[in-house]
Design a protein that fits this description.
144 residues; alpha+beta; Lipocalin; eight-stranded antiparallel β-barrel
């Protein structure tokens, strides 16, 4: 009887382990699908001071992000007229996409997707010494 319980417990642990890996791989496959090109339809920017919204702005048609199978990416961000291009590397977990470009690392939480060719990513920067917080919400659509 004890042997059956041990085997069943081991199988449950393995199934939990496999299911967590599969979500990470599923997200990775969605990111690189169709050449990995995503259009940033808009970026919402919010600035908080002492946990109160102080300023917000929306940037439509804000650029593109391209993810490839080898873990490299190219970001083209257009916020104030002229595009800024950065190349770097990316990794993902179940909930986050981490991009390292131009010596800076950015962690974006997957707020929604990727599914049906859409994805929402959220980047939050905290400045505890000044009680400031900046939140960038990226709305992406697969570029065809």
């Amino acid at each position: 009887m004890k042997t059956h319980i041990k085997i069943l417990s081991l199988l449950v642990i393995l199934l939990i382990g496999f299911s967590s890996c599969s979500k990470e791989k599923r997200i990775e496959k969605q990111l690189i699908k169709k050449d990995g090109k995503w259009k940033i339809t808009s970026i919402d920017y919010k600035y908080y001071l002492n946990n109160e919204l102080n300023y917000s702005e929306n940037y439509p048609n804000a650029g593109t992000i391209e993810f490839d199978k080898k873990g490299t990416c190219v970001l083209t961000i257009t916020l104030s007229g002229s595009p800024e291009v950065s190349a770097g590397n990316w990794t993902n977990s179940e909930d986050n996409i981490t991009i390292t470009a131009d010596g800076e690392t950015t962690v974006m939480r997957s707020a929604e997707g990727p599914k049906k060719g859409k994805m929402t990513l959220e980047q939050t920067e905290y400045y505890n010494d000044t009680a400031e917080k900046e939140v960038y919400t990226y709305y992406l659509e697969r570029a065809d």
